């Protein structure tokens, strides 16, 4: 393109001396100006394309400004995550790419997840602009296409698969199951599902029951999320088929009573939504997903959020032996059958941890302690705290003396009769000597 425009410009230059009139020169000059504008635009487009980075083969922890993963790999050095680079081996499916799902997708993309499968049948509207992620110029595009376009630009290392389908239809459910079962990087897995986690970010119970059905059938762990219609509360929940309650074990009243939730919507009234609540729930969801995938910290079973009271309730729900979902009952049986194996594994792990702890304490007490490292009894530290006002939560200890102590130290200085003027005179005398 650039070359062709350059040839055209050269041809126009060649024409100039032979032109018969001033008018013809003016017209050719106008054409030249347009051609030069096209050349500039073409250069801008090439520069923008060069701006999106190339794929990176290996995640590195190198601390340079050009490494998009340096801050994430630093989690290893900080002792939070042992194996951050493993994130590239994980596939996560997000059902519903709306206010929560799109933000969750962006977070996982920026974290360098291996593969993202996005499911939604909706299109982007200007009415979605009060939330994060989508841009006004994407209005009219399918949410999956718009999301793939943006996410591919943010991180080209992530394998992105957009599925424009409604999982609640018969055909959609089949394709959803097919997509979850598709292989990734030829990885061997024990389960029927080929994804590591499903995140439900849908806005209706029918779709949640569908995701529940699919995950129960596949024995697939998933996380559910939701934001209330008044936009000021939400929750996330971990669902492990057979181990925790499934969505049908304790169904919401609308589902249990068999009412079609679409009939509950009032004409001309839409649900409220806030980018803040949506962003908070997406953050809590992806935080839990990262902890689950990379095995660090406490993986929450249920975490609620009430914006008006700043209240974060937590709870755990065991599966219901009378659950209406047949696949859930089947997973519950398998979970019970596997109990001896899990117990043996847990015992072996506990024994290994004990042996490891014993080894560490033996090394710490070794006589050849050339660094003079000494262990301080935590009880002693506690005993050194004098007043109740200096109480610190468990696990924290003071490095500097408390404020009362500092006052005492200052009071210990000997009283002097000299004022500032006397001291200044003494100083000048010394300098004069
Ligand atoms: Zn159940």
In brief:
The protein is of the alpha/beta class. Helices cover 44% and strands 9% of the residues.
Structure, explained:
The protein is extended. The model is unreliable at 384-389 and 403-414 (pLDDT under 50). By secondary structure, the protein is an alpha/beta fold. Strands 3-2-1-4-5-6-7 form a seven-stranded mixed beta sheet, with helices on both faces. Strand 4, helix 7 (205-218) and strand 5 (222-227) form a beta-alpha-beta unit. The chain has helices at residues 2-15, 22-51, 70-77, 101-110, 143-154, 170-181, 205-218, 253-256, 275-294, 326-337, 339-364, 378-383, 403-411, 420-432; strands spanning 91-95, 115-120, 159-164, 197-200, 222-227, 233-239, 302-306. Helix 1 packs antiparallel against helix 2 (22-51) and helix 4 (101-110) crosses helix 9. Zinc ion (ZN) binds at residues 246, 248-249, 319-320, 323, 325, 328. Zinc ion binds at residues 246, 248-249, 319-320, 323, 325, 328.
């Amino acid at each position: 393109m650039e070359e062709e425009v350059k040839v055209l410009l050269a041809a126009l230059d060649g024409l100039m001396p032979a032109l018969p009139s001033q008018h013809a020169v003016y017209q050719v000059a106008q054409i030249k100006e347009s051609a030069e504008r096209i050349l500039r635009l073409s250069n801008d487009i090439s520069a923008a394309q060069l701006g999106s980075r190339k794929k990176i083969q290996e995640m590195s922890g190198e601390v340079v400004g050009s490494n998009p993963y340096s801050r994430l790999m630093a989690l290893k050095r900080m002792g939070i995550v042992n194996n951050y680079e493993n994130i590239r081996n994980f596939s996560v499916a997000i059902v519903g790419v709306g206010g929560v799902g799109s933000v969750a997708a962006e977070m996982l993309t920026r974290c360098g997840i291996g593969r993202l499968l996005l499911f939604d049948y909706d299109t982007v509207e200007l009415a979605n602009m009060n939330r994060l992620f989508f841009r006004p110029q994407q209005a009219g595009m399918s949410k999956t296409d718009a999301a793939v376009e943006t996410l591919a630009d943010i991180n080209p290392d992530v394998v992105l698969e957009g599925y424009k389908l409604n999982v609640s239809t018969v055909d959609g459910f089949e394709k959803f199951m097919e997509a979850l079962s598709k292989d990734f990087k030829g990885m061997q897995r024990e389960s029927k599902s080929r994804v590591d986690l499903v995140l439900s970010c849908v806005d209706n119970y029918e779709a949640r029951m569908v995701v529940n059905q699919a995950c129960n059938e596949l024995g697939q762990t998933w996380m559910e999320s939701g934001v209330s219609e008044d936009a000021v509360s939400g929750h996330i929940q971990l669902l492990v088929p057979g181990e925790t309650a499934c969505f049908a074990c304790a169904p919401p009243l609308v589902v249990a009573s068999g009412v079609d939730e679409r009939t509950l919507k009032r004409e001309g009234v839409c649900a409220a939504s806030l980018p803040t609540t949506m962003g908070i729930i997406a953050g809590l969801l992806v935080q839990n997903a990262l902890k689950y995938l990379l095995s660090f910290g406490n993986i929450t079973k249920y975490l609620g959020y009430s914006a008006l009271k700043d209240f974060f309730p937590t709870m755990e729900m065991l599966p219901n032996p009378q659950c209406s979902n047949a696949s859930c009952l089947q997973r519950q049986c398998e979970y019970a059958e596997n109990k001896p194996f899990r117990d043996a594994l847990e015992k072996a792990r506990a024994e290994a941890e004990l042996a490891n702890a014993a080894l560490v304490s033996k090394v710490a007490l070794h006589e050849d302690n050339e660094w003079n490292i000494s262990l301080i009894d935590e009880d002693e530290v506690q005993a050194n705290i004098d007043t109740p006002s200096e109480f610190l939560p468990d696990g924290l200890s003071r490095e500097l003396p408390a404020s009362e102590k500092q006052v005492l130290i200052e009071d210990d200085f000997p009283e002097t009769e000299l004022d500032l003027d006397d001291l200044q005179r003494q100083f000048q005398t010394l300098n004069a000597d």
